[in-house]
Design goal:
It is a single chain. Helix content is 37%, strand content 10%. The strands form four sheets. Strands 6, 7, 8, 10, 11, 12, 13, 14 and 15 form a nine-stranded parallel sheet that branches. The protein has a two-stranded antiparallel sheet with strand order 1-2. It has a two-stranded antiparallel sheet with strand order 3-5. The protein has a domain of 247 residues: TIM Barrel, CATH 3.20.20. It starts with a strand and ends in a 19-residue tail after the last helix. Helix 6 runs antiparallel to helix 14 and helix 21 crosses helix 23. By secondary structure, the protein is an alpha/beta fold. The longest helix is centred in the N-terminal third of the chain and has 21 residues. The N terminus is likely disordered. This is tRNA-dihydrouridine(47) synthase [NAD(P)(+)]. Its EC number is 1.3.1.-. One of its GO terms (biological process) is mRNA processing. Pfam families: Dus, zf-CCCH_DUS3L.
Length: 646
């Protein structure tokens, strides 16, 4: 039974937000979301029937929907981009996309809106007739138009960085990238010959990965909507060629001299020649010492946590508009990056507004982590690299990655020291308080991180086993902050208001704050912290924010049907957090705390009521206000079962 806390005007249930009486909805009736798959509906109906037959009165539908359906796109119904250019299709008869322009236009659904964001912003939409807002830029003779004046003004501006170069992708897949620098660093810092190697993981997965990509390119059904946006004539090497390349690479690696004092110059063909002006530098031949690496001032800044799935580039752009200082890409698996997976490299993209941007790597082997750090440093534009030592997912933990590194100190040390040899940017660490419940070990690792030369560390105030079942332990974060001095040290956990941000900063002595779920529920929290005020943001302002996000999504993922579907998917994922926000004007006592859930209530207008709904069917309605109606047969299964039935 939940405990009761006595307030100034009566008794209030612990963990439940205090809502003004005039906004409470005691007659709320649960309903099933129509957009759910049939299996989810059947489970809800069974649950409802059990309740009506005298089941336990407090039994709730809870847990996660672990087998959520993936979006699928039929390539045969998508138009080939060659029809919008003067160049012939380089795939010829083997092209899996449609070349029947008349048939495509005849069967194409009605446009989703009157204005194309890409055309009105940049003067040109590269998706042409495939754009779901094509009427804006289509002439009477079915040609894709261009606003030359606006296009010339915007085409010279770089919108985002870190696109995966096709030549680099081929070199990674064929294992032809020059990792001599990484090999030298590994030989220098390995305490003993490792029995387990990340290269073995890549060798084991390379054939199956390439086979799956071949199938994805040959099948009519696209199983990865992000990867298949790019298609060309470059063929993936066969299994025999891959094995021969691996053998040649292994023979070449054995010929490397094991002289730890020698300095090796990278000879990778993927590194373009740099034309310098003024004084010539010797950074390409002389390794930078730690004190000579690029400096990043992390202190007293607001840091947006690297959020898997929802921490995408359009979301980070929204947070930048609200004042966040430091952003980081979603967690990227180093083995997938070294295999040249397009979807994994997409996580490293950086928008030009992200002035302090880093990438977060997850891995458990020193060789793959070091090689990944090298290729990222040599081919991307970033300010720091963060090592994920906090991921609690079982699949990651069982492979010795994420939070498992906290219990493997020797390997952790080798990973850090080897990575520092091949990068010219700061190497940071994000970790948890420990692995097992009620057994904190972070305070034992922090002094070692200082000795290993780590300039900044972030601590999430929970163990791996706790997940989100308890509040973050800021008393322990305070203890670790003292042990971390003079290293830059950030605290993370449950911050959702400027009052709590001030409290945590003043009482713990941390250098800065990282925000995760608080920024998902109310991204304007960064504005509140910087302006020191509670922002009673209106439902109209929140809808404008969602419209900007949708526009950024159409720019990032595309305005064709596939891009619209991807944008809608991530918008719905974000709405699963946004609905938890309680407007300031409805609360009896501000601010809202992250562990407080509201009773059913109505907003100050219909839109505010809709945005407060926990039913995923209402999230779909909001998406239709921004991206047009969903296609026939559309389904969306929320991550949490409780959101299927509200």
């Amino acid at each position: 039974m939940a405990s009761l806390d006595q307030g100034g005007d009566g008794y209030h249930q612990s963990g439940v937000a205090r809502i003004k009486a005039e906004f409470l909805d005691p007659n709320h009736k649960p309903r099933t979301a129509e957009v759910l798959p049939e299996e989810a509906k059947a489970e809800i109906e069974q649950h409802t029937q059990e309740q009506s037959e005298g089941g336990p009165p407090k039994k709730k539908l809870k847990g996660r929907n672990k087998k959520r359906p993936r979006q699928q796109h039929n390539r045969g119904t998508q138009i080939c981009n060659s029809l919008f250019t003067e160049n012939p299709c380089k795939f010829g008869e083997k092209c899996k996309f449609s070349h029947d322009l008349d048939g495509y236009m005849k069967n194409k659904p009605k446009d989703l809106g009157e204005k194309c964001y890409n055309f009105t912003t940049f003067g040109y939409c590269k998706y042409g007739l495939a754009c779901r807002f094509a009427a804006t830029h289509t002439s009477d003779d079915m040609k894709n138009m261009r606003n030359d004046e606006l296009y010339e003004k915007t085409s010279s501006e770089v919108q985002w960085f870190n696109n995966l170069d096709k030549n680099l992708q081929i070199k990674l897949r064929k294992r032809e990238y020059d990792f001599t620098r990484s090999q030298t660093a590994l030989q220098k810092h390995s305490h003993k010959k490792e029995q387990n190697s990340g290269d073995a993981v890549i060798k084991k997965n390379m054939d199956s990965t390439n086979d799956n990509e071949d199938k994805a390119q040959s099948n009519e059904i696209d199983t990865n909507p992000i990867d298949t946006k790019i298609h060309d004539a470059d063929k993936i090497p066969s299994e025999t060629n891959i094995k021969s390349e691996i053998q040649d690479t292994q023979k070449a690696n054995h010929k490397v001299k094991e002289n730890k004092d020698s300095t090796t110059t990278p000879t990778s063909e993927t590194v373009p020649a740099i034309r310098t002006m003024g004084a010539l530098t010797d950074e390409d031949t002389i390794k930078l010492r730690p004190q000579e690496r690029k400096k990043v001032d992390f202190s007293d800044k607001l840091y947006l946590a690297p959020l898997t799935t929802v921490g995408n580039l359009p979301y980070r752009r929204v947070c930048k508009e609200y004042g966040v200082d430091i952003t980081c890409g979603e967690m990227a698996m180093c083995t997938n990056l070294l295999q040249g997976q397009q979807s994994e490299w997409a996580l490293l993209k950086r928008h030009h507004t992200e002035d302090i941007f880093g990438v977060q790597l997850c891995g458990g082997f020193q060789d793959t982590m070091t090689k990944c750090a090298q290729v990222i440093t040599e081919t991307t534009n970033i300010d720091f690299i963060d090592i994920n030592v906090g991921c609690p997912i079982d699949l990651v933990f069982k492979r010795g990655e994420g939070s498992a590194l906290m219990g493997r100190t020797a390997r952790f040390e080798t990973i850090i020291k080897s990575m520092q040899e091949v990068i010219d940017v700061p190497l940071t660490v994000k970790m948890r308080t420990g692995i097992y419940d009620d057994k904190n070990i972070a305070h034992q690792l922090i002094p070692k991180l200082k000795d290993w030369g780590v300039p900044m560390c972030t601590l999430h105030g929970r163990t791996r086993e706790q997940r989100y079942t308890k509040l973050a332990d800021w008393d322990y974060i305070k203890q670790c902050a003292k042990a971390a001095k003079p290293m830059t040290f950030f605290g993370n956990g449950d911050v959702m208001s400027y009052q709590e941000a001030n409290l945590r900063k003043e009482t713990t002595g941390v250098s800065g704050l990282m925000l995760a779920r608080g920024a998902l529920i109310k991204p304007w929290v960064f504005t509140e912290i910087k302006e020191q005020r509670d922002w009673d943001i209106s439902s109209g302002e929140r809808l404008d924010m969602l419209q900007r996000y949708a526009n950024y999504g159409l720019e990032h993922w595309g305005s064709d049907q596939q891009g619209v579907d991807i944008t809608r998917k991530f918008l719905l994922e974000w709405l699963s957090f946004l609905y938890r926000y309680i407007p300031v004007g409805i609360l009896e006592q501000a601010p809202q705390r992250i562990n407080e859930r509201p009773p059913y209530y109505v907003g100050r207008n219909d839109l505010e009521t809709l945005m407060a709904s926990g039913n995923c069917a209402d999230w779909v309605k909001i998406s239709e206000m921004l991206l047009g109606p969903v296609p026939d047969g559309f389904t969306f299964l929320p991550k949490h079962k409780a959101n299927s039935y509200k």
